[in-house]
Specification:
The chain has 13 helices and 15 strands. The chain has about 350 residues and is an alpha+beta fold. The strands form 3 sheets. Strands 1, 2, 3, 4, 5 and 6 form a 6-stranded mixed β-sheet that branches. Strands 10, 11, 12, 13, 14 and 15 form a 6-stranded mixed β-sheet that branches. It has a 3-stranded antiparallel β-sheet with strand order 7-8-9, with no helix packed on it. Pfam families: NUDIX (PF00293), Zn_ribbon_NUD (PF09297).
């Protein structure tokens, strides 16, 4: 017997009130309110699964069309029927992601347990490849990078919170996958993000910036200073401390620009500018491999280099010539808008 009729019979009055949104572009407010209803009402969330689209993960790797990198078609979205053909157990491993502009709920499914021949069939028939997430984030646009990040983090949060942090008893997830309730003490747990400050340090004349290189960066890549917030710190305090720790200078005039969710390990990265007179750097060699002041001319060349060849982020630059993170990272936007001279109050609207 098909499960579709059963799912669609759930909460018919409530479901009907939201079905009117289907098939047309809906406003941001309508999407947010619909998403909240799906998160908190178990049967409503379940009833819309047959109408949804599904992003597929296999052991933390999203299904992407590599040949469609940096286009709107990079993510492979499957219908409920298509998903059931490949993974009949999808109802036990899906999580809710968002609501599309057309009013369609979108979900993600982990299919790590499928046989290798099913995995190969899934890739062959969709034209997708299960891609390392770090690489995948730079193959999609800014908005879709957030979708990939959210899906991975909600999946991982559910995996890592199968037991209550208060009493140790098993927890049970809600239909959306956005909360887990302890089966013993009734405590409800919710996913959260770790705050990170990421900062582009510039001289007051805006002719030079500080970029740093970590050992794990591909050859030639430099990025912005970044680090986790300590308990009790403001964003401004985090930025000042991280710059002092990593490159040994004291910045002033910290200005917030924009933020980005990042799935390693589940961070909310708040991007800032900060100023300091150009001076010698005292590098923390335990954290960094290198750090330097770069001129506007050097930065312009580095931006042109990553724009011409985004795959540098994947394999590095054998020549060692400078390049910066590609557009999927907030560091790129901080660096590129500094180079363009975009007014600070306008940068956010250019990114989003």
């Amino acid at each position: 017997m098909s499960i579709l009729p059963l799912l669609r019979r759930l909460t018919p009055p409530v479901r009907a009130s939201w079905l009117r949104l289907q098939g047309r572009d809906i406003s941001y407010v309508e999407r947010v309110r619909f998403l909240q209803e799906l998160k908190v009402h178990e049967s409503l969330c379940s009833s819309f699964i047959p109408d949804g689209k599904f992003l597929v993960y296999h052991y933390g790797k999203p299904l992407l069309r590599v040949d469609k990198a940096n286009t709107k078609d990079a993510i492979v979205w499957l219908t409920f029927t298509e998903m059931k053909n490949y993974y009949p157990e999808l109802l036990s491993s899906y999580v809710l992601l968002d609501v599309s502009e057309e009013g369609k709920p979108r979900y993600s499914v982990q299919v790590g347990g499928i046989p290798s021949y099913t995995k190969e069939k899934l890739e062959d028939e969709t034209g997708g490849i299960f891609t390392d997430l770090r690489l995948g984030l730079f193959m999609v646009n800014w908005q879709e990078a957030h979708i990939l990040s959210r899906a991975n983090c909600v999946h991982m949060w559910n995996k890592n919170n199968a037991f209550c942090g208060k009493c140790g008893a098993p927890t049970k997830r809600n239909a959306a996958g956005y909360s887990r309730k302890c089966t013993s003490c009734d405590m409800t747990h919710y996913p959260s993000s770790a705050p990170v400050g990421i900062v582009l340090v510039t001289d007051p004349e805006h002719q030079h910036i500080v970029l740093v290189r970590q050992p794990r960066h591909p050859q030639g890549m430099y990025s912005c200073v970044a680090g986790f917030s300590d308990v009790g710190e403001s964003l401004e305090e985090t930025v000042r401390r991280e710059v002092a720790e990593e490159v040994g200078i004291e910045v002033s005039k910290v200005t917030y620009i924009a933020s980005q969710h990042w799935p390693f390990p589940g961070s909310l990265m708040s991007g800032c500018f900060a100023e300091v007179e150009k001076q010698s750097l005292d590098i923390d060699k335990d954290e960094l491999q290198d750090a330097r002041w770069f001129s506007k001319e050097e930065v312009g060349t580095a931006l042109a280099r990553i724009d011409a060849n985004p795959n540098l982020r994947l394999r590095g630059n054998p020549s060692g010539e400078l390049f910066v993170p590609p557009p999927g990272a907030i560091a790129f936007h901080l660096i590129s808008h500094w180079f363009k001279g975009t007014p600070v109050q306008e940068i956010n609207q250019h990114i989003y």
